Amino acid sequence: MKLANYISDLLYRYECVIVPNFGGFVTNNKSAKIDEAKHTLQPPFKQITFNSHLINNDGLLANYIASTDKISYECALNFIQFEIESWQNKLKSQELFLNDIGSFDLIDGKLIFEPYQKINYLTSSFGLNNIVSHEIKRETYKKQVLKLEEKAPLLITPESKKAQNYLKYAAIFVIGLSAIGFGGKLYKDNQNKQLVVAAKKQQEIIEQKIESATFVISKPLPTLNLEIEKQKKGFHVIAGAFRFPENADRKVKQLLNEGYQARILGVNKWGLSVVSYESYSDREDAYTKLAEIKNSVEKKAWMLIQEF
């Protein structure tokens, strides 16, 4: 399987997929939008961008390839490096197209990325297609009818006049029925609007009562101090994975003494206890810390993106 296929698989689940020594594919969720020129409604989607500065290996892509193909981590890294070299050679003379991801052009030494628009990587929008609303051409049809009437005017005879009278009464009858139906719809819509307004007013009254209410408790319970983590931390700078739990505990104690907020994240599917330097809720903060640790502490540190 080509490297682009592995990247495409990961883009469904992660916000950032880094290709070592090449760049990172970053996704951002976008709301549904209307294209007035093309009369289309596009469902919510993931917008893919490319950042050529994200070249440090965070381990995500290599670990995924290793687990999928049942090969070692080093073999996965070699495979990635081989693919990157073939991409770079191709870009010297022509455009590089990655299946379901987009295309690259090398212009004045800079990589220009154009995302592939026909794939939606937002899983919550799976199965939703663009809705096309065709333009209503009332004025065009009206002009065509007027031209036909000019070319072939209608002759009114006594017989046709009688027929017109019948048609007139039939039209009045139909219009009357339509008016009744339309009037009923207006009445129903107006009634619904009144119910909504009344419900909103009732809700405002209840909220005002709640805000102004005073509660007196004669025997209050003792105060409990609860520490609640406001944000989920899904970005973890990894120090290592250990087969023996006692080694993982020893590593955590060492990192805590050095000032890190280290902890054991859990046991992965290979039975290894994963130890992190620190965990972050913000992606940029996490990658900044990873770069700092790789430059000054441990070059083999890597990033794990997963919520625990």
Chart the SSEs and their pairings.
Blueprint: H1 3-11, E1 16-19, E2 23-30, E3 33-35, E4 40-42, E5 45-51, H2 60-69, H3 73-91, E6 96-98, E7 102-107, E8 110-115, E9 131-132, H4 138-151, H5 158-212, E10 235-242, H6 245-257, E11 263-267, E12 273-280, H7 283-296, E13 302-305
Antiparallel strand pairs: 1-2, 2-5, 3-4, 4-9, 6-7, 7-8, 10-12, 10-13, 11-12
Helix pairs in contact: 2-3
Question: Based on helices, strands and strand pairing, what is the structural class?
Answer: alpha+beta
Biggest sheet features: 4 strands, antiparallel
Please estimate the helix content. 40-55%
End-to-end separation in angstroms reads 30 Å
Total of DSSP H or I helical runs spanning 4+ residues? 7
Strand order of the main beta sheet, please? 11-12-10-13
Spatial shape: flat
Radius of gyration: 33 Å
SSE run: HEEEEEHHEEEEHHEHEEHE
Uncertain regions spanning at least 5 consecutive residues: 210-217
| Strand count | 13
Beta-strand share of residues: 15-25%
The average pLDDT value, as a whole number, equals 76
Written account of the structure:
This protein is of the alpha+beta class and 308 residues long. Among the domains are: 3-132, no CATH class; 235-305, Alpha-Beta Plaits (2-Layer Sandwich), CATH 3.30.70. Helices cover 44% and strands 22% of the residues. The protein has helices at residues 3-11, 60-69, 73-91, 138-151, 158-212, 245-257, 283-296, and strands at 16-19, 23-30, 33-35, 40-42, 45-51, 96-98, 102-107, 110-115, 131-132, 235-242, 263-267, 273-280, 302-305. It has a 4-stranded antiparallel beta sheet. A hairpin with a 4-residue loop joins strand 3 (33-35) and strand 4. Helix 2 (60-69) packs across helix 3 (73-91). The radius of gyration is 33 Å and the shape is flat. It starts with a helix and ends with a strand.
